[in-house]
Design a protein that fits this description.
Blueprint (H helix, E strand, L loop, with lengths): L3 H19 L7 E5 L5 H9 L4 E4 L2 H10 L4 E4 L8 H4 L5 E5 L2 H14 L3 E6 L16 H8 L5 E7 L12 H15 L6 E7 L6 H6 L4 E4 L1 H4 L2
Parallel strand pairs: 1-2, 1-8, 2-3, 3-4, 4-5, 5-6, 6-7
The protein binds pyridoxal-5'-phosphate.
The site of pyridoxal-5'-phosphate has 14 residues, from strand 8 and helix 9.
Length: about 230
């Protein structure tokens, strides 16, 4: 039996401990339950335990679950194909995976048509792994300047994924670097850009992520595993 209540209690304790180390309020860290591998009945259980943010990495699955649980906040965290843009604009509270200019343009076009603002995070490839999505750190500044011009798009922060590892200390330099990059970028005050969120940390490394300034952790396995 999966005891999601116990898993969530455990995660919240660990987030609180990490937040204390950084001297921040644990409530300023949003726990996003990544429900991509589970059925909506488990999503409902978690929702009834007070977790209201959920992440999905596929548009069709996000929309299916969103329709069953429309009161929750649905985050798109996976790679987004341009031809799926029409199914996601207006249906998600935050897109974490804005990783290229033509996607930004497509989102903006659809948002204009629907007359809704699209909140996004820029995905940054800090680790430099070739198979990873995300904008190279040295290009983020120029991308932000351009994307900020798009009328219907908002960039509310940065997202990254650390490499898979068994020791979360290996993620720490990655998270430190994203934090430092955000610090640098904030000085520019681009229009349409307000870098208030740092989405970093998953089951393998969310404590280190919070210690390094994350305020959105995306956690799947640690909630939904036995
Ligand atoms: C699946 C996924 C997660 C959650 O990973 P877990 O290891 O299950 O916590 C976080 N972020 C992204 C982008 C994912 O695709």
């Amino acid at each position: 039996m999966i005891n999601v209540a116990a898993n969530i209690d455990n995660i919240k304790i660990r987030i609180a401990r990490a937040a204390r180390k950084r001297n921040i309020d644990a409530n300023s860290v949003t726990l996003i339950a990544v429900s991509k591998m589970v059925d909506v009945s488990l999503v409902e259980q978690v929702y009834n335990l007070g977790v209201i943010d959920f992440g999905e990495n596929r548009v069709a699955e996000l929309n299916r679950k969103r329709q069953l649980l429309p009161a929750a906040n649905w985050h798109m965290i996976g790679r987004l194909q341009t031809n799926k843009v029409k199914d996601v604009v207006g249906h998600t509270c935050l897109i974490h995976s804005l990783d290229r200019w033509n996607l930004a343009e497509a989102l903006d076009r659809r948002a204009e048509y629907k007359e809704v603002i699209v909140p996004t995070l820029l995905e940054v490839n800090i680790s430099g792994e070739e198979q990873k999505a995300g904008i190279a750190p040295n290009l983020v500044k120029s991308v932000l300047a351009e994307v900020g011009q798009l009328k219907w798009l908002r960039v509310l922060g940065l997202m990254t994924l650390a490499p898979l590892n068994d020791n979360q200390e290996e993620s720490r330099p990655i998270f430190k670097e994203l934090y430092a990059l955000r610090d640098q970028l904030i000085k520019n005050s681009f229009s349409g850009v307000d870098l208030k969120y740092l989405s970093m940390g998953m089951s393998q490394d969310f404590e280190v992520a919070v210690e390094e300034g994350s305020n959105m952790v995306r956690i799947g396995t640690s909630i939904f595993k036995e």
